[in-house]
Specification:
This protein is mainly α. Helices cover 55% and strands 11% of the residues. The chain has helices spanning 2-12, 24-34, 46-59, 83-111, 132-151, 170-183, 187-195, 206-217; strands at 18-21, 37-40, 65-68, 114-119, 157-162. Strands 3-4-5 form a three-stranded parallel sheet, with helices on both faces. Strand 4, helix 5 and strand 5 (157-162) form a beta-alpha-beta unit. Helix 1 (2-12) crosses helix 8 (206-217), helix 4 (83-111) runs parallel beside helix 5 (132-151) and helix 6 packs across helix 7. The protein starts with a helix and ends with a helix. 32% of the residues are buried.
Length: 219
């Protein structure tokens, strides 16, 4: 989805890209297609993440650009929003970006140049029904971005958030399927519900998000 599109865009722009993820098959496919590195990383496993970061530092070196893209969502009314779902979403969407920034930003500051791009969402700027944990996590990520941007403003390291609406990915398809399953609406009706949230009345394409990220990586 978005991660693969960003990785491809960065590679075409001349970056040496390290892609991470939980699915080794997808990871290898993306890494091979862009001529980059693939490192299995489950960001909800803190010890394994730390070990993977140490391996990247030893084998590849300093990371100049960090794109925090991993994320997940759930849908439930507030009375059915469980502790387990809340904790899992917060861990992946908010705590993991903090931990990656904490690990990788010091070397950027020392080098006098770095870029951090956090993939938030317009759910980090507005509220939506039935996605309480997701909205809260993305609001938190926007706040974290703003705080770090202020702190690092004089160091040569920039910190930005990209906040797209619905993007034409598997998550978008899954959301449509969930609406169909839970409400009895048709796929066309479900898609219209999602696209009505956009002024353009359509889903954003992955290439558009990747283009925004690339602009934020420029000098």
């Amino acid at each position: 989805g978005i991660g693969a599109g960003i990785a491809e865009g960065l590679a075409k722009a001349g970056a040496t890209v390290v892609v991470t993820g939980r699915n080794e098959e997808h990871l290898r496919a993306v890494a091979e297609s862009i001529g980059g590195h693939g490192v299995r990383m489950d960001l909800t496993d803190r010890a394994a993440t730390d070990a993977a970061l140490e391996m990247i530092a030893a084998d590849i070196g300093r990371i100049d650009i960090l794109v925090n893209n991993a994320g997940m969502s759930d849908a439930a009314p507030i009375e059915r929003t469980t502790d387990e779902s809340w904790d899992q979403i917060m861990e992946l969407n908010l705590t993991a970006p903090l931990r990656l920034c904490r690990a990788l930003i010091p070397a950027m500051v020392e080098a006098g140049w770095g870029r951090v791009i956090n993939l938030a969402s317009n759910a980090g700027l507005s509220g939506y029904r039935y996605t309480h944990a997701y909205c809260a996590s993305k609001h938190g990520l926007v706040g974290l971005t703003r705080s770090m941007a202020h702190e690092l403003g004089t160091t040569g390291v920039t910190v930005n958030a990209v906040c797209p609406g619905w993007v034409n990915t598997d998550m978008y398809t899954a959301a449509i399927d969930r609406i169909v399953r839970t409400t009895g609406r048709t796929s066309e009706q479900a898609e219209k519900i999602l696209t009505s949230m956009s002024p353009q009345r359509r889903a954003v394409e992955v290439a558009e998000v990747a283009h925004a990220v690339l602009m934020l990586c420029d000098d």
